[in-house]
User: What shape does this take?
Amino acid sequence: MRRRSCFVFLFCGIFLPRILGFPQANTSIDCDSLLPNYQTEPQTSAPPYLIAVSFDNFEPGNEIQVTLEALKDVGFKGFNLQAREIEGDVPVGTFKITDPNTKGLECHNVTNSAVSHTNSDVKQKVTTTWIAPRDVRDLQFIATVVQDLEKFWVGIQSKTLTPTHSESVNGTGKSKRKVCFECIC
Assistant: This one.
């Protein structure tokens, strides 16, 4: 009887999580390729997720709110989100971690240069804050999103953000304009 109990315990601990679709450990996603650490191929269909940003333009030091969200009720268990210059292959800028479902990652020896999940609970939306660096060109946020062990999408992109490199933008990313009127009546 004792041997049977041990077998049931081992079966439940090893095989049941995989059968039910729960990862045995947190999924990690490579900083460069954005591929998860398991052998399934990425989906080629349109992703049921989007990346929304709070501003189209930025200056060094600006904080941009970035939201990754499900378009339908499918949710997601894991993700890796980075900012990359157009045609670039390394993360730029850093993230300020503000959502308890997120954690910063170190890519290319830069702390918080990417953001990922803290657990495999199903999420509908996560929000984080990205801090713009100096000397970058047009960029996009790019993500891998893991729905479950069988489905994930690589290379989900936000709209393009453009550096303004002028004094017409204040620290919030919003334009500041001075208007002078002279009326001769």
Residues 6-25, 167-183 have pLDDT under 50 and may be disordered. DSSP finds two helices and eleven strands in the chain. Residues 4 and 117 are 37 Å apart (CA to CA). The two ends are 103 Å apart (CA to CA).
